[in-house]
Amino acid sequence: MLEQDTYALTDPEEQRSLIRGHGWATLITARDGSPVVSHLPVLLDEDGGEADPAAPLAVVGHLARADAELHRLGEHPVTLVIQGPHGYVSPSMYDAATPYVPTWNFVVAHLHGEPEVLDADATYDVLRRTVDHFEAERPRPWRLDGVTPYARSIAPYTTGFRLTPTRVVAKHKLSQEKPHDVVARVVAALGGDDPHANPELADAMRKALVTHV
Hints:
Blueprint: H1 12-21, E1 24-31, E2 34-44, E3 59-64, H2 65-71, E4 78-89, E5 103-113, E6 116-117, H3 120-135, H4 148-154, E7 158-163, E8 167-173, H5 180-190, H6 199-211
Antiparallel strand pairs: 1-2, 1-4, 2-3, 3-7, 4-5, 5-8, 6-7
């Protein structure tokens, strides 16, 4: 991914927040000269609590065992892509005399490193934590423990992993290069009833706007 100082997302806590809020990732490896790509849920490795800011960033996840074998997971480096809020920005939102063209704003992180393949018990723990994480907002969260025999019987068909990246490239392209008043109008459009309204992207742009004032 092209790295640009204007859009660089280097704050470790902002990177962690991106992962916390966006648990659907893309795993990319290369095998025999060809890319191998899978999509899977991941979690920031906090084990139920806030991570120590001084600790290395790490994520855990799981995928079908057949997928893991296709990637030869654990044998070579991988790239894990965390896609945050993103969306189309129409020049109509700018309402400015200066000519503009459409663009796409986004927040994303690429985590590079060699994953650790987890054993059966650790993989099951990742499955449990994943369920707990995504069920947390429900009024009556469903728990894996409620179907333990069945869950244990199918868990061997999954592979868990932990990735402590050796390199993180994160980017938030949120119109930082444009005038403050223009960005404010885009934020208002994205947060309102515009055909391309995107409240999550509006929130991300609003935060970036405050940071770059």
